[in-house]
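Structure ticket #2291
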Amino acid sequence: MSELDVFRAEKDEFFGSHPQSPLTREQKGDFRGLKYFPENDSLRFETQAREFPVKEGLDMRTSTGGVQHYERFGRFSFSVEGETVELTIYRNEHGYFLPFVDSLAGSETYPAGRYLEPEPLPGGRFFIDFNLAYNPYCAYNEMWSCPVTPAENRLKVAIRAGEMLYRE
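Resolution: structure written out below.
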């Protein structure tokens, strides 16, 4: 069993039984585990972020109509099936945040996007692992408020890694 398999099994256990799970009691009763794409080594990499010289603030709208405050930290490029794409990394008092929507949104992935927390490395580099991409809690029920992915992080390519669309 790989480290990713162990992580996913622990997450499923948390979702199915923990009091702080995003699932309702009724959802937990029928829960049989989340769906994931197979592990994809090509979507796990270190990258250099091109840090923005001026850190512009951004009020990210939430699924319930509120806002969460972030700063646009920088952008990075990577390749997906031969196509180069770019994403923006955001930052707030909790750390770095990478929301994104891919071309599978609404069919295989959550329509409003998935999230990652890039791991900062020395020298402005980040470790990005799309195998850890997860759905925000609002994907499971409307009790949760989640940041809506900004337009600049909507990709026209498929990111076949991480968590898939949740269906009860």
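Closing remark: The helical segments are 3-17, 25-30.
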